[in-house]
Write a structure and sequence with these properties.
Blueprint (H helix, E strand, L loop, with lengths): L2 E10 L5 E4 L7 E4 L2 H21 L22 E8 L1
Antiparallel strand pairs: 1-2, 1-4, 2-3
Length: 86
């Protein structure tokens, strides 16, 4: 089992929800009803996404030192690190 840590971007929605993406893991996204729920969902999404990559024989991306926030990200976003063991 290996441990992987990636930065997640939590983008606020209009109704208190948060959309989540990982700048260093293209295609890995999630959302939650609130920030706590979004964090839980982000953990699950990252674990499933990386697990599928490993099963498919794909290389896991190397986390960058300064991940780039997508230009269209809504103001008020938050970042945090998500660690999973696979």
């Amino acid at each position: 089992m290996r441990e992987y840590t990636f930065m997640a971007v939590f983008e606020p929605g209009r109704k208190g929800e948060y959309f989540v993406y990982f700048p260093d893991v293209p295609g890995c996204t999630s959302w939650g009803r609130n920030l706590k729920h979004a964090r839980e969902q982000a953990h699950e999404a990252l674990a499933l996404h990386l697990g599928a990559m490993l099963e498919d024989g794909e290389e896991i991306p190397v986390p960058s030192e300064n991940p780039e926030i997508h230009p269209g990200t809504e103001e008020g976003y938050k970042t945090g690190f998500i660690t999973v063991r696979i």
